[in-house]
């Protein structure tokens, strides 16, 4: 009989990644909920039936877990052990770590088939993951069983983790503004080709490449809502 893999948390309690503690969940969660949204800007163009949608940025993903904790195996009468030995592990995830002046970074790990392990394969530049790293946004503990002396013996903990990734990791995976990649851009009112070139190439003088790519003869006469192809340059 195969022993099921047990989920676990790695908690960074110091300024260095090596300053971590690891503890397994008492019982594997029966459900994982992932929430990911992006922020879009609507560009209203007179005469169109619907506004154009332009990607602004991604929002932090959230992972919600429901964790069951129980200490009745230690007895339910005199000498019963409080289940808070387990629940306090999760509650302290929203408390400040003195060395960090902030709550800890938390990674939930289960197995190599973790949701997201196929991300990006079909599009190139894999964003595959086998765990979820974030900071605790909220912890809610509900105690449902007590000993005759009032010792809590059973609880359900709802934990919400908000995605955390350092900027160098995000840029290393995606690098969306790299000048050696082409981009689509919707021109906004008052925007110039020089400004667009400055945003994508960090060199405003490269506006001619954009004009040539899009067949623009007079860069002073540009209509808001014009969809541009920003070509790659080396």
Description:
This is LysM peptidoglycan-binding domain-containing protein. Pfam families: CIS_tube (PF19266). Residues 20-167 form the Contractile injection system tube protein N-terminal domain. It is built from 4 helices and 11 strands, in the order E-E-E-E-E-E-H-E-E-E-H-E-H-H-E. The protein has 234 residues and is of the alpha+beta class. The relative contact order is 0.15. It folds into 2 domains: 8-173, Beta Barrel (Elongation Factor Tu (Ef-tu), domain 3); 183-230, Membrane-bound Lytic Murein Transglycosylase D, Chain A, CATH 3.10.350.10. The strands form 3 sheets. The protein has a 7-stranded antiparallel beta sheet, with helices on one face. The protein is elongated. The termini are far apart.
Jot down its keywords.
Membrane-bound Lytic Murein Transglycosylase D, Chain A; two-stranded antiparallel ribbon; seven-stranded antiparallel beta sheet; alpha+beta; Elongation Factor Tu (Ef-tu), domain 3; LysM peptidoglycan-binding domain-containing protein; 2 domains; 234 residues
